[in-house]
Amino acid sequence: MTDVINPATDEVIATIQVADDTTARLALDSAKQAEQTWGKTSIAERAQWMLRLRDVCIKNEEALRTCVHLETGKTWADTQEDYQLLVDSLGFYAEEVKRYQPSNSLTLKGHQFIPSTIVQLVL
Fold this sequence. Notes:
Its EC number is 1.2.1.16. It comes from Vibrio variabilis. Residues 3-105 form the Aldehyde dehydrogenase domain. InterPro entries: Ald_DH/histidinol_DH, Ald_DH_N, Aldehyde_DH_dom, Aldehyde_DH_Superfamily. The chain is built from four helices and four strands. It is of the alpha+beta class. The strands form two sheets. The chain has a two-stranded antiparallel sheet. β3 and β4 (111-113) form a beta hairpin. α2 (43-59) runs antiparallel to α4 and α3 crosses α4 (76-96). The radius of gyration is 18 Å and the shape is extended. It starts with a strand and ends in a 10-residue tail after the last strand. The model has no long low-confidence stretch (mean pLDDT 86).
């Protein structure tokens, strides 16, 4: 178990479980299996999922901003930018993904990029 400390107040705001190697490996294996299903998901359905997630974030604005406020020590006003970036990004990428044309890879300035099927959001 690890304490989460508000850096502005040094107050312990939560205690969280830390995964051991076995739990972390199980999580990675599970994500790898899910990637197979997600990889077969249509672009339109992926966009719908992103918009659903955006809608859930909008409904839970106060809870999300409270987490940022307590975990980072930011003022309440300063949490607005993080929250709005999350919501706007989900809307933007839900539209952008519709322009995506599948390909095996993209080479840019000598670096090869391979499309990923997993999206990670960090608030």
